[in-house]
Specification:
About 45% of the residues lie in helices and about 15% in strands. It is globular, with a radius of gyration of 19 Å. By secondary structure, it is an alpha/beta fold. The strands form two sheets. It has a seven-stranded mixed sheet with strand order 1-5-4-2-3-10-11, sandwiched between helices. Strands 7-6-8-9 form a four-stranded parallel sheet, sandwiched between helices. The protein has helices spanning about 30-40, 65-80, 90-95, 95-105, 110-125, 135-140, 140-150, 160-170, 175-185, 190-195, 220-230, 240-255, 275-285; strands at about 10, 20-25, 45-50, 85, 110, 130, 155-160, 205-210, 235-240, 265-270, 290-295. It folds into two domains: about 20-110 and about 240-295, Rossmann fold (3-Layer(aba) Sandwich), CATH 3.40.50.1860; about 115-240, 3-Layer(aba) Sandwich (Rossmann fold), CATH 3.40.50. α11 (about 220-230) links the parallel β8 (about 205-210) and β9. Bound molecules: D-glutamic acid (DGL). D-glutamic acid binds near residues 58, 89 and 164.
Length: about 300
């Protein structure tokens, strides 16, 4: 078993007992892909998930606003007695993680470092292509995280904000998302003019990271369009699995795993429209979802 690298999870002292729940939050639905991965690895942990869907998207907002939103989500979960926090939002992980760690008396982990580690591996000698929100791409967080694993690996980022709106709508299939995915992915391939119309275009990247928790919903479409554009597949990396793996290692090494033997519970909180959240959430969770509760967050 390996210890998490410096910076991936911090604040070793949990101030609540090991049976306390884990807190997970995101700007909306997307973080449920991280919840699914956590529940697969840590089936006995209770989890409280908070989706701030009243204020989604975060990815187009200023760093100051993202930090303020992130603090209000984190404080809500902290007041509910969570033992550790998983920031299941790339944008918050990119912009607000240090601030959360400074302000909270809890271990806090994000999704960028695990995603960058998996991507550096998957890209081999190639460049890491990152699809993310404007906030994530312009923060340069993936570039810094990849550089900490390999000084030779370059990063090419592409903001893909429309995919967040499509995911929140549950519009993940058909011609509209296909064209949107194709347009964004084109940034990772040589220009059509250079290769000849209709011919496969050479890829500029060795892997594509789904650098937004909403994007795994488009995974098949993204893989399909990569093959259409380049004539062959390129590895697609989803940080959820690696985040769950590294977080499990962290809990084990710090003696923070729940000791109960029955399955852990899941509590879902949102800041708006619990019914519509419920109807789309099962597609992220891959299982039926419990009743969703609406909460009002205290302003920060
Ligand atoms: N879930 C957020 C992320 O992973 C993005 C969605 C948003 O823009 O709020 O970056």
């Amino acid at each position: 078993m390996t210890l998490p690298p410096p910076g991936s999870v911090v604040a070793p002292v949990a101030r609540v007992g090991v049976e306390a729940p884990l807190g997970v939050f995101d700007s909306g639905l997307g973080g449920l892909t991280v919840v699914r991965a956590l529940r697969e690895r840590l089936p006995h942990e209770n989890i409280i998930y908070l989706g701030d869907n009243a204020r989604v998207p975060y990815g187009t907002r200023s760093p100051e606003t993202i930090i303020r939103y992130a603090l209000s989500c984190a404080r809500e979960l902290s007041e509910r007695g969570v033992k550790a926090l998983v920031v299941a939002c790339n944008t918050v992980s990119a912009v607000a993680l240090d601030r959360l760690r400074a302000e909270l008396d809890l271990p806090v982990t994000g999704v960028i470092v695990p995603g960058a580690r998996a991507a550096t591996r998957a890209a081999g000698e190639g460049t890491v292509g990152v699809l993310g929100t404007l906030g994530t791409i312009s923060s340069g967080a993936y570039t810094r995280a990849v550089a900490s694993f390999s000084s030779r690996t370059e990063v090419l980022g592409q903001a893909a904000p429309l995919l967040v709106a499509l995911a929140e709508e549950g519009w993940t299939e058909g011609e509209v998302p296909r064209l949107v995915v194709r347009k964004y992915l084109s940034a990772f391939f040589a220009p059509e003019e250079a290769e000849g119309f209709g011919l496969p275009r050479s890829a500029k990247v060795g892997c594509v990271v789904l650098g937004c928790t909403h994007f795994p919903l488009f995974r098949e479409l993204i893989e399909h369009e990569i093959r259409e554009l380049g004539g062959r597949g390129i590895p697609v990396v989803d940080s959820a699995q690696q985040t769950a793996l590294e977080f499990e290692e962290f809990l084990i090494t710090r003696g923070l795993c729940a000791l109960r033997t029955e399955p852990g519970t899941l509590q879902l909180l949102v800041t708006d429209k619990p019914k519509s959240f419920e109807s789309v959430a099962s597609r992220f969770l891959g299982s039926s979802v419990p009743a969703v509760e609406q909460v009002d967050l205290k302003p920060c």
